[in-house]
Amino acid sequence: MGPSYHNYVGVAASPGIAIGKAFTHAGARPVVSQRRVSSARVEPERSRFTSALVSVAETVRRTRDRVEIEHGQDLAQIFEAQLAMLADAEVRDRTLQIIGERHWPAERAFAETMAGLCAAFEQIDNEYLRARVGDLHDIEQQVLTELSGGAMPGLQTLRSNTVIIARDLLPSEVAQLGRRLVTGLVIDVGGATSHTSIIARSLGLPTVVGAEGASRRIASGSRVIVDGDEGVVHALPTAPVLRYFRSERRRQLRRERDLSERRSLPSVTVDDFKVQLCANVDLPQEIDLALANGAEGVGMCRTEFLYLGHVLPGEQQQYESYRAIVEAMSPRPVVIRTLDLGGDKLSHAVDTSAEANPMLGWRGIRICLDTPSLFKTQIKAILRAAACGDARILLPMVSRIDEVRRARSLISEAASELAAEGIDHRADCDLGVMIEVPSAAIMARQFAEEVEFFSLGTNDLVQYTLAVDRGTARVANLYDPLHPAVLRLIREVSDSARDAGISAAICGEMASDPEAAVVLLGLGVMQLSVSSTAIPELKEVVRAIRLSDARELAEEALTLTSGAEVRHLVQSRIGPALRLARPARPAGERP
């Protein structure tokens, strides 16, 4: 019996449906010799290594320049990060040291250095930084290929309507692709925040990552369907499955046209209440997508991407990055969250020790206050960027009032130092706190007297409130943003902000869930910040409901005993309006 229909479940990394013929991309890694070299060969090996770095850097620059011409400056900045990695002195010096001490050839020494660096990144509990392992592998493969005298495995022989299936696909490889020939991507490994995924989204290529086993089992030439919305790959689909997805793709195209035509419409409820919809971003290159989807600002700009290397970013580097985002969004607001990493991720730069529970340890504002120079460097960069638009400062992991007061004092010092140096800046940036710790939510009225705005980080607030690690499979089902205990905390924060005359926004994943969004609006949170791609459909939800209905619903939700009861309540009260705003896939022959 020959091969038959099979599907692979992964992670939805880039939305849309692609139907085409599979091209299995081997992406073979250069063989690394395990031999040793003589003492006489140590210096030639070192020279060969440094020459390879120079050559690869030139190749990456050419890729960056081409990507900038074809796709814009923002996307090209991904390759600026790769150039920074190639220039990392610690990587270079460690490799040269191994060559000299162990008498290893350049390939083996560099592979050893990169293995240690990749292992360190894979242990990071920050999803964005962990996803940068893909860039490390990209650089590693390019350097090893250069040292071996070979060529990077190419994708130049593709035909139209091709779906690329690969164990891994490097950012530099994805950047070569175009919609004319490639319709979708399937990758065994990786996550939705990797640069490979970011580029795929920018190119509009439906992509599923984490589809383990797909590259081993799907043969080149096989018909494949990539469901980038659900994160499922259908290999050798049956006729009914194929008909279903062809119909669904046509429906999606019509839906996209409708949303595009309505993108400029205001996000107001049926009873004419305004709701501000903003985007959460990680990188400057995500701003174009945010604007294209109708973002009214950046509700949270994460800054961890600047802390990738073994050298902390300086004030000028940070300023240029923040300025690019602020200028692109001007006059819309940009909320910049200060560094939110654990001390273990900054051990190369600050004194730290191992912690039994980093989630409850030395992280966020605690690190910033204990290392004032680190904090003030970032604050100066933000204050300078604020001279170019509406930048605001957001403090993470705040649990005590005195943390806000100490932070404000350091911000004042930073502004005074900039003024003394004659550097253009804005000293009176709005200051806000992340409400992600129960103590901050419970004391929201006191915090409201100290800051200009609140931002509810519901991802962590839910975990801390319910004592659930959503990354632990065994208890992940207990993670429930609509649990009444969580809703009561959100109500307290919203009421406190309203009474103090300051704003309160939601910047967690909860806001992109239509049912949860309705409850949040009912609780008085009128600013929602979500991923850029979620904005158009969230706007449709806002425009389909009455705030008066949402308020009544929220009041009743607070009296219930579980998140399941809350969801049932939402569906029973306004389910038809939600389905009209966000139509589900037709049941029909749905696989």
Cα-atom radius of gyration = 25 Å
> How many domain regions?
4
Q: Alpha-carbon distance between the termini?
A: 22 Å
Strand order of the largest sheet: 1-8-7-3-4-5-6-2
Question: What fraction of residues sit in β-strands?
Answer: 5-15%
Indicate the CATH class of the largest domain.
Alpha Beta
Mean pLDDT: 86
The helix content, as a percent range, equals 40-55%
CATH hierarchy: architecture of the largest domain: Alpha-Beta Barrel
Which overall shape is indicated by the principal axes computed on the Cα atoms?
globular
The CATH H-level homologous superfamily of the largest domain: Phosphoenolpyruvate-binding domains
Q: Specify the number of helices.
A: 23
CATH fold call of the largest domain: TIM Barrel
How many β strands by DSSP? 16
Main sheet, how many strands, which sense, barrel? Answer: 8 strands, mixed
Helix/strand class: alpha/beta
Spans of at least 5 consecutive residues with low confidence: 343-349
